[in-house]
Design goal:
Blueprint: H1 17-30, E1 34-40, H2 41-44, H3 54-69, E2 73-79, H4 96-99, H5 105-118, E3 124-127, H6 142-159, E4 164-171, H7 175-183, E5 191-195, E6 199-200, E7 204-205, H8 214-228, E8 234-237, H9 254-268, E9 274-277, H10 310-322
Parallel strand pairs: 1-2, 2-3, 3-4, 4-5, 5-8, 8-9
Antiparallel strand pairs: 6-7
Helix pairs in contact: 1-3, 5-6, 6-7, 7-8, 9-10
Amino acid sequence: MVTPNWSVPGSLFSTTPEQQRAEIALVAAMGGNLIRFHVDWSRLMPDTFMRVDQAYQDRVDQVMAWAAAYRIRVILNLVGTPCWAPASGPSCPPTREVMFSPPRPDSFKAATRYLLQRYPSVYAFEVWNEPNLGSSFWIGSPAEFAATVNAAVAGADEAGVGTKVLAGGLFMDGSSYLQQLYDAGMHGQDGISLHPYSMRSGGVWVSPSARRSPFRRAIESTHRVMVRNHDRGGLWLTEFGFATCPAQPHCLSDSRAAAYLAKSYRVAARYRYIKGLTAFSMRDYADPQDQNPAWDLRSGILHKDLAPKSAFGKLKRVLRQLG
């Protein structure tokens, strides 16, 4: 997963166009052929139905062009309801609650159609991020999320392209939430996306190759729910990774984190229904002088300045071996 393009100057996720291009080039140098890239709908179309912020659009265009130049496919992940689009009615100026509230299905369908017509070669369109994680990214019901997925499917159909629609971005073992989505009528998606961090309660990291690791349990339980609901789509792992020290609440040495990440790819290769993986993340987001960052800010394959961590070389070898 490359640094989100929705970052604002001064934020932890701030990045320059040159840094974004370097990240994508290093994915290719590592042997990768797939990235996950966030687009913030609330910044792309901030104030009026389907009116585009051209400066933001230009940056997205550039990332897509760089990915094409390096022959890397893109999972485009759309998140963030604009203030004019909540299902409950417009609420401007935008707030965090507005950004993560359910959108009007017709508006989400139109945004999906617009993006896929603009980027017809996009490999997959991922609907939202971690809706099952309390109110962190989705302040709505499973039924409202199912309606959003169905809207994306309809938008992709209207766009007339071959892009896959992925539903979920489910955090850890989201199998019970996934069942609620099927019960609410979610249908037509090409696959389910999952974030199977190999982390026990309290933030303790576990080897993904362990027989009952959180990584394997999340994959297997999610697929069982898919089979039970006659969903023959594949499973995409669009976030997983390990934090290097220092980080809170728990972290691993650089070499141990690299070994665990490599094992994640080897384990995933055993499951025929897993169709793609995008580790979290390509680089660290924490400043080097920060001695107490959250784990997700120190889970990169590269340091914040893009210097390689141990995971870069380790994963490069594994990708070559796995073909």
